[in-house]
Predict the structure.
Amino acid sequence: MAVALAAIAGVGCAHAPELRCPAAGGPAWRQVESPHFVVQTDLPSKEARALAEEFERVHAVLQRVPFQNVPDTGQRIRVVSFGEDRHYEAFAPPGAGAYYLRSRAGFPTIVMPGLMSDFARATIAHELTHHLLARTFVRQPPWFAEGIATYMESIGATRPWWNKPALGGVPLDHAERLHGFTTGAGSVLVAKRLDAQQYSVAWLVVHYLLNAHGARFTELQRRFARGDDPAVAWREVFPEWNPADAAGMASLDRALREYIEVGRYAYREVTLGAPPPTTERTLGSAEVHAIWLDLPRQGSRGPGAPSGLFEAEVAEALAEDPSNVTALAARAFLAPGEAAALGRRATEAHPTDPRAWLLLARSLPPGPEREPAYRKAIEVGPEEADALNSFAWHLVMSEREGEAIPLAVRAVRVAPWNFAMLDTLAASLQGVGRCSEALVVQRRASDLLPEGMPEQGREPILERLQALEASCGNAKGAAPVVKPAGG
C-alpha cells in the first residue's frame, strides 16, 4: 500500500493571529532530543527539557512491563507540544487530551498541549504501549492489544510518580463501566473492534490473567509473539474458556465478576534511574511551518479547507525557505502540474534527504526517471521506511513482486507498527505465490488497523485479507517472513 509523504495541513501564521511563527512575532520554537524522543515545542527551554525527560521515564517504565520483553531499537518518536491550549486545539480531534499519529509513514508523532497532565500521561502510555508492542507481538487480537495498553494507563497512580511509578492500578473510568459486571467476556475475545464498554472488559481480562493466571498468560503471549493464530492459541492455553462454549464463557464471566468484586491484585513498582541527557537547538520559522504543515489541522486540511488558509501556510513556508521539503510536497499537492519541478528543486537543495528524492519519484510520470529517484531515496535513507515501502509498492504495481520483497521486509523491520507497510509486504508475497506467508502478514496488518479509522481506509486491508483467506485459508500459524527489528 502506498503511503503519503506527509499529512498536509496547516494555517498561515501571518493570516491567523492566534498562531504566529517566530518571524511574525510568535514564541520561539525549539527541538529537544533524547535517545527515544524528538520534542518540538514553543515551551521555554527548561520546560521543554523536562518534558523530554518525562517521556524518557514513561518509555523506561514501558520497557519493563510484566509482559514479553520489548526490544529497544533506538527509533525515536516525535512529540509536538503547544504551549497554549488554544493552539493545540486547532490541531487536535475534539476532546482529545493528547493524540498519537500511529500510522504515519515517517516519524510516529505524539501531539499534546504543554506539559504532561495525568490524563495526557495515561493517554500517551496507552498509545506508546501499542507502538512498542508492535515490535514484540506478531499477532495481537484487539482484546489483548487494548487490554495491555489500558493496563499501562496506570502509570502515574502514585505520587510523585516519577520516583517509583506503580503499574497495575484500576483506572476510575473502567471501574465505573464495570460496576455490576455480569457478562461480556465472550464477545470481547472474538471482537474485531471494541466499543467503550468492551475496552473496559478487555482491561479486566488482562488484569485478571496477569494476576490470577500469570504462567499461562505468559505462554499465551509467547504464542502471539511467534505469530500463532490468536483464536487457536487462546483455546490451547485456556481450553476451559472456549468462546464457542457457552458454559465456558459463563465460567469466565463468573471468575471475572468475583475477581473485580474482591479487588485483590498486585501493584508493580518500577525503580528508575536518572533520565538520559538531552540536546537542544532553536528552530527557524520555516521549520515551524513544516511542523504545522505536517499535522492534521482540524477543519482546514487540503481541498475544501477554509479559503486561502492552507495555501497561505504553504506560501509562507516557502517564503521562509524555498527549498523546505515539507512545504514543497504541500505545494505539489496543491499544484500537481508543478510537482516534478518541485521535486527537482528539493533534490538539488537537499541531495542527502530521502524525502526529497521520494517527492521527486512520486511526482514523475511512469518512465525511466522514476525508478532511479526511488533508488536514490533508499540509497541516502537506507532506514527510511516510507521510501522503502513506496519503492516496494511501485515494484508491486509493476508486477515485479520478487524484487519488492526485500524492500518491503526492510520497511516492516523499521516500522512494524505500520499496517500499510505490512500490506505492501503481503501483496509482494502474494504476487510470487507465497500464499501462507502473505496471509500471516496480512492478518497482522489487520490487527494493527487503528480504532476509529474510517472504513474507506480499512477496506483495502480487509479486502486483501478476505482474498487471501479464500485462497489459502487453511494456513494456520505459518512462520512470519519477518520479525520486527530487535525481535
